[in-house]
Design brief:
Length: 102
């Protein structure tokens, strides 16, 4: 698998996950919805552009800016990106917190 193909698949999975989000009984937040929509469009664009060999620099810039904003919001603490709001923790947060690997 080539790097552009892998990038396309990852971005298409990001877009699909954002599009398949179900808020359940949560309150609708228009700004968050708009942000998620723009992020899904950017990720989907990267995926489609990469698959067809087109220039995907602008959509990638949007994705990189989103990551930058997320990291700024948690002051660079990567583990905080994967913290959940309830008492259970995500498997990735648990893995990142693990101090001893062997």
């Amino acid at each position: 698998m080539t790097l552009p193909t892998a990038t396309a698949l990852v971005c298409l999975m990001i877009a699909a996950r954002l599009l398949l989000f179900a808020r359940g009984g949560a309150v609708h937040r228009p700004r968050a919805g708009l942000f998620a929509y723009l992020l899904a469009v950017a990720a989907g664009s990267v995926g489609v552009f990469e698959l067809f060999g087109l220039d995907s620099r602008w959509p990638q810039l949007v994705l990189h800016l989103t990551l930058l904003l997320a990291l700024l919001a948690v002051r660079g603490n990567v583990v905080e990106l994967f913290r959940t709001t309830d008492n259970r923790q995500s498997w990735l947060a648990i893995l990142l917190r693990k101090e001893k690997w062997i």
